[in-house]
């Protein structure tokens, strides 16, 4: 476990000059950062294959809307992945662990299973058997979320402090690109197959087969990577213990080690609330844009085009901020930017139907949200300090972070209906206040200093 720096270390850190822009950008070309980038691409690919892309395939196959709506439940593994994260931390995969190591073995194993699950889903027929489609999609989601568990642990353990921020920014950007490939990319690919005279159902099958093949990018990357030193040390420390004891220690230790820290409950509350302002407004962004009078195509083109570009730029800007400033200062920058950016939608509500205004509002929101996300991931990574259960702790923290998006934002529609759009987005700024209060309190309690040498 990392210990808190003493006063001499703090003094030396204060005298150390901040990284220049050139130094900050050079770190993105480091081999470990490039490996994390490619793993991020592999993690982003499968999400839409069991989600939005699959729903388009089902609708084109004539599946009724009621059945399609039930497929939201297929995403359950992503919210419950912390339940089997201790297995990833503690268990050895026959042959794979011995041949590739603790983290890389699980990476290769989960990716091979993910490829098989996508191929199985590709062979189903939504028109004839939605049940088999659901089972295939559930397998894809389960294998995808398992891959996410391992990649998160690998990223936290493999990158040194000087490369953590760049690794996080690269991971977030590549994840978004992977999602774009498995949404717009698949749709274009299916259309291309259809244009050659192939039947629609067959075109969809080959589109999914192509996505299964792209997962091999992550597999080749895992094979080319080296096992994180922290993971190897943790593996050596528990080599003589039974599988049951290792799983038990990973599950219980992840909770007990975290909860015995000073101000643990306040830190957990901060994890829940930090992205709440983003989630609260984001829940209603699409209905708001359509309600203003924009077409579905207007929204899709701007979000997929301008919005994606702003997200990628914001991700790398977040990495620069996290590398240049302290963790506490970076969190302040991210928290304020992602809250204030909601006012761009209040302004758009007043301006009305104007494509340039929509592009600007979407760009501002995506840019600031990406900055906040990268910095927030830096904080979550800094909280996971024990390599014996990195995967379990990170999965738990990300599950908590999803509470704001999944549950606290559920009433956003009622607020928008009662207040109107300009006031709703102003309220979205105000809901950031509890997280800012917690940030002040944790900073005064020296919470961020006690994390030790922060991985930003």
Automatic annotation (TrEMBL):
Listed Pfam families: MFS_1 (PF07690)
Record GO cellular component, one term: membrane
Molecular-function GO term, any one: transmembrane transporter activity
Membrane topology: Multi-pass membrane protein
TM annotation in the entry: 33-57, 63-84, 105-124, 130-151, 172-193, 205-225, 265-290, 302-322, 329-350, 356-382, 394-415, 421-442
Keyword Transmembrane attributed: yes
Protein name as annotated: MFS transporter
Major facilitator superfamily (MFS) profile domain span: 32-446
Family the entry assigns: Belongs to the major facilitator superfamily.
Gene source species: Tardiphaga robiniae
Location of this chain's protein in the cell: Membrane
Major localisation: membrane
Alphabetized UniProt keyword annotations: Membrane, Transmembrane, Transmembrane helix, Transport
